[in-house]
Amino acid sequence: MNSSITIKQVIIVGAILLLIAFLFTRDIKGLVKPAEHNGNAGAASGQMAQNPAATSGLTLANASEAGKSAISKGLGKDIIILEKKYQSASGNEKVDLAKKLAQKWDDVEQITPSAMYLEVVAENEPTAVNWVKTGDAFMKAYDRTQDSLAQPSLLTKANMSFKNALAKDSTNLDAKTGLGSTIVNGLGMPMQGIAMLLDVVNKQPNNIKANMNLGLFSIKSGQFDKAIPRFKTVIATSPTPEAYFYLATAYENLDRNKEAIAAYLESKKLAADPSLASFIDKKVTELKNKS
């Protein structure tokens, strides 16, 4: 029985990653996905050690170079000009340029250099809000990257940022949600992270990020019945294509095919993307044939 659950989890995580590949290329913001290298084993054991040295290979310079290689010269022109000014600036001017560069990198969907500049801002203007913003950016970069070598550094940066936010404001639920998410993804014992996320939803039942992460963890651990109410809560507040897709995968794995089809079709409608539509059409046909 355990082996069949493991096979099912592998299949569904693969389907989720394919969906995310579709959605990320269509400029849909705020997605959450299971990390490629974690799988169920990482979520269950939490063996990714938190080590500040893990971030040593991630620098502003190499993040910027990698970002430039991923965009056209035209898009990178303004960024190059701003970065030259940043290198020779100091004080408030340097911080202001870091803010502009963070936004410029975000505009061209290069999240890692954007996060690195947000970290500069947070270090110079250390408020809970700035550290949460930084942590969210590193977590987004972690979610999106296909580079398994970069993932530990990005996750550790996110973890440190959320801890810094909580040091400034121990009641900040966004920081607690972010920190819990980094723990669930491998920086500590998963149940510690789950406890943090549950504490957030106890205080704020409709919290989108906490419910989304609890739902994703439920899927990765094969607890599909527990995932359903989490995604329904997210949908009731913010109906997004990914939330409907995850809900559909939970239904599908419980052989509730009619409900899975309905949720997949809602995901297709909200995303309005030809590639995703084709993928979901095949999935719906497959489920109908099983009925």
Order of helices and strands: HHHHHHHHHHHHHHH
Radius of gyration: 20 Å
> Which geometry do the CA atoms define?
globular
| Percent of residues in beta strands | under 5%
Q: Give the terminus-to-terminus CA distance.
A: 23 Å
Low-confidence stretches: 1-11, 20-53
Q: What's the tally of helices?
A: 15
Largest sheet: none
**What is the number of beta strands?**
0
Proportion of helical residues: over 70%
Mean pLDDT: 84
Class of secondary structure makeup? mainly alpha
Please give a structural write-up.
It is a single chain. The chain is an all-alpha fold. The model is unreliable at 1-11 and 20-53 (pLDDT under 50). Helix 14 runs antiparallel to helix 15. The protein is built from 15 helices and no strands. The longest helix is centred in the first third of the chain and has 23 residues, at 2-24.
